[in-house]
Each structure stands twice: as structure tokens, then as C-alpha cells.
Design goal:
CATH class: Alpha Beta
CATH architecture: 3-Layer(aba) Sandwich
Shape: globular
Number of domains: 1
Number of helices: 8
Order of helices and strands: EHEEEHEEHEHEHHEHH
Strand content: 15-25%
CATH topology: Rossmann fold
CATH superfamily: P-loop containing nucleotide triphosphate hydrolases
Radius of gyration: 19 Å
Bound molecules: guanosine-5'-monophosphate
Structural class: alpha/beta
Number of strands: 9
Amino acid sequence: MIRRKYKYFPMVISAPSGGGKTVVRSGLLKLDKRFAFSVTCTTRPKRPGEIDGKDYYFVTVEQFKRMLREGLLLEWAKVHGNYYGTPVKSVVEVLGKGRIPVMTIDVKGARAVKKIFPEAITVFLLPPDLKTLVQRLERRGEAPENVAVRLETARSEIKVASRFDYLVINDKLRETIREVAAIAELETRKTGRNLDKVKAFGNQLLKRKSL
Ligand code: 5GP
């Protein structure tokens, strides 16, 4: 477990594949400078338009296994036949800069992160309905067999949705982004995250009394 010594907390967003987590993450990053992307690595081939080091670190299976052996990954998973993993370094670096790392990872990854960073906030994005999810997958150019695999995975993913801290229906993108940002904002107000401020004020009061 990594003890809290940072101003903010990791924000984990999971959703069935095609549920919109990547686009929600981009929206959050544009909306508020506090959010930052912690890049994860994958062995899957690059999709058109994806940039190495920006969307993912695209690595070989050998490179991935070496990172795993060397304990460089906070969590990892094999999703749809490919390896995915979050380098510890990319999350800790963002936290160290006083920003909120936004992690868009699968449901098992979300659980692993929560174990290591108990203060992490987990958000599950649910598509408004199945038809919309299928359309999104098709629009992004997934082959029919890939769509079928992703829908099958979605079945097991939604079973664990209730373990997430928050659930947001991703219908209208702008609203979804606003809702996720609002969740982060509220979380920063949790009493437990602000006891240092209460203590500082208490100390000021004490000093005043002794004047
Ligand atoms: P895609 O290939 O569509 O980009 O991602 C497939 C799935 O892998 C998605 O559910 C995505 O969130 C998940 N994923 C991406 N990066 C990571 C990671 O670092 N760790 C884990 N556990 N899942 C990831």
C-alpha cells in the first residue's frame, strides 16, 4: 500500500470497451489542468491515429514481461488477448506534481489500484444502452468478431460495477465529463482529505488565545 502523501488521488475510470472512457479522459484533461493522463503500456497493435507515449506505450510481449518481472507495473491485465499494464512511475509522477492521474483501465485493474492506493476514486461508465455500445464499437472500426468478444467481456465487467465508488451513465459526452469532474471536485472536499487545513486553523486559534 502506498501511504497518502500527495495533494490529490488517482482517479480510475472503467467501462466496457467502447463505453467512452478514452474520450471522457481527454475531455477531463481539457476541462481542468488538475487532471493528467498517466500513460499505460500495451502489447496490442497501434490503432490508426494513436501515438506511442501519448495514448499508450506500445511494447513487445518480451518488454512487457520484463517490466512485470522487475516490479515496474502497478497492475496489469490480459484483455482480449493482449497485455496491458500501468507503470507505477507514471502514476506516482503525476501525483508528485500535485495533479490527479486519470487512469482508464479495466475492472480488475481498478481493483488492484484501489488496493495499493486506497484513496483512489473509481468511476464506472455505463453506456445508455446496448445499441449505443454496439454502434460505438462499430464506428470505431472494430471487426464483428472483436465486437462480439468485447460484448462478452462487458457481461462480466458490469457484474462488478457495484464495487465502484461512482456510476455515471455516458449518454451525452459533455454532461458525462462534467459529472466525472464534479465527482473529483467533491472528493477533494472530503473531510478526511482536509484535516491538515482544520489543524492549521486550529493552531491559529490556539495562538490567538495565547496572545
Ligand atoms: P483498448 O485496447 O480498447 O484500448 O483497451 C482494452 C481494455 O484494456 C480497456 O478496457 C482498457 O481500459 C484496458 N486497459 C488499458 N490500459 C490498461 C492498463 O494499464 N491496465 C489494465 N488493467 N487495463 C487497461
